[in-house]
Amino acid sequence: xxxxxxxxxxxxxxxxxxxxxxxxxxxxxxxxxxxxxxxxxxxxxxxxxxxxxxxxxxxxxxxxxxxxxxxxxxxxxxxxxxxxxxxxxxxxxxxxxxxxxxxxxxxxxxxxxxxxxxxxxxxxxxxxxxxxxxxxxxxxxxxxxxxxxxxxxxxxxxxxxxxxxxxxxxxxxxxxxxxxxxxxxxxxxxxxxxxxxxxxxxxxxxxxxxxxxxxxxxxxxxxxxxxxxxxxxxxxxxxxxxxxxxxxxxxxxxxxxxxxxxxxxxxxxxxxxxxxxxxxxxxxxxxxxxxxxxxxxxxxxxxxxxxxxxxxxxxxxxxxxxxxxxxxxxxxxxxxxxxxxxxxxxxxxxxxxxxxxxxxxxxxxxxxxxxxxxxxxxxxxxxxxxxxxxxxxxxxxxxxxxxxxxxxxxxxxxxxxxxxxxxxxxxxxxxxxxxxxxxxxxxxxxxxxxxxxxxxxxxxxxxxxxxxxxxxxxxxxxxxxxxxxxxxxxxxxxxxxxxxxxxxxxxxxxxxxxxxxxxxxxxxxxxxxxxxxxxxxxxxxxxxxxxxxxxxxxxxxxxxxxxxxxxxxxxxxxxxxxxxxxxx
Length: 584
Ligand SMILES: [Zn+2]
Description:
Layout: E1 3-9, E2 17-25, E3 31-35, E4 53-60, E5 66-67, E6 69-73, E7 76-80, E8 86-94, E9 103-106, E10 109-112, E11 120-121, E12 129-136, E13 140-142, E14 146-149, E15 157-164, H1 167-171, E16 175-178, E17 181-187, E18 190-197, H2 208-222, E19 232-239, E20 244-247, E21 251-257, H3 264-279, H4 306-323, H5 329-345, H6 354-359, H7 372-375, H8 381-397, H9 404-414, H10 424-435, H11 437-448, H12 455-460, E22 464-469, E23 474-475, E24 478-480, E25 487-490, H13 495-498, E26 506-510, E27 513-514, H14 520-527, E28 534-540, E29 543-549, E30 552-553, E31 557-562, H15 568-578
Parallel strand pairs: 1-12, 18-19, 19-21
Antiparallel strand pairs: 1-2, 2-8, 3-7, 3-11, 4-5, 4-8, 6-7, 9-10, 10-16, 12-15, 13-16, 14-15, 17-18, 20-21, 22-31, 23-30, 24-25, 26-27, 26-28, 28-29
């Protein structure tokens, strides 16, 4: 059996580059082909990591004689072995993109996903790999892979060897090296850690460990009070700006502004992001659709199930926080209200179903443009609303005896725990077993057609009232580019659409009153009336023109509150659903 080793030199981080040597031994073939992934699971866009790879060359392992190395596609190289049974492939990776799914190396830290760094032999995904990393001696390294000490080269650096059981294992374990702080705790006897990078002078909240511990317990409770991993680590990157999370089997990377930890809402966002990625340790990283059972790392992997993978996870991230007593019921309801409001405001929910929007993630959600909100759905926010509706339907049908928690637990036990991915038929089977086939029909309504659920009716079961506020305010239906009055988007069917306004139009005046970015809202509010035409002065492709628009009543703002007039059993159902929440 061939063996595969990588030596990653990250000892000169200020160069923004890392140097890699892949040593492939036990060969008897005339040529070997290597590939680099084009994307990372969890982030559905081809990112073409190989565009940062350069100076690829190969030598024979025994006498270092040069071997022919030929690029055969954007991300593949063929090396002629010339009789050598060990070959070394050397290359350089430029690493200066700070996101959870890429590689970023500078004088302050080094972070990478192995998808951006490893050239792997084609058709050898089962091969184990030893990955030795050399890094500055004053830094420490964090990765979920098992490790052993290694001899550093150069001698004044530190080195660790990471052990990956196969390609998937290697690609699913990002590496963080730097002057980090590590905090640890256990849940159900399983060790957890958070490694904080880039906080500078900002102190982590004193309750950070206990808060994360409560989140882990709530997530485990959904799946029967058990944890699916031997150890879990949150890699938390902090920067001046940026936001994101990426799930892995035994770890996650979170990216947030460092100052977010110092405000109540910023810290809640951080905890919700942590809860979201942790929940993926079950939903997506283990329990996953059959089409994701074995990833193809070189091209788009299509699924119609992101409304479950991301939508249900987005539903549970906020729900875990309120169940853990980290947010109040009112705060939780405000978050759900925002999801409902965003759903109602985007016309795309009538154009492309949640299933279709999942399938098109690669060309729509991950490549948004001026028309995205008109033409497709966000399967995170809308998926969370659909998940809430499904949960409330299950609770209604079973008189509160069962919930979406039971569906998740059963789907996990009957698919992933049996060593297989799930089909949509498995989801339907589990829901039918738990709540009956009529709930399956209602799920189909939510995810296969226009999304227009009866939120008010469902939430009344759990003692929640839906209020529409400011619904009679005049509405035009435009979005602006930041800091300008240039239209970034026009909502389909809105007054702006009807009167012919288009993205890139610049609004200069309304009823002869000059408007700028800072004054648009107040000026529009002062002169616009529902049903009464207003004159807009517009610059379109450099030509001034006048347009008459007739504002309509807007979609308004959604507010959810606990209904004081609800019955005792409705209030009890509400508490069974979201918990009592933080008391103040
Ligand atoms: Zn997610």
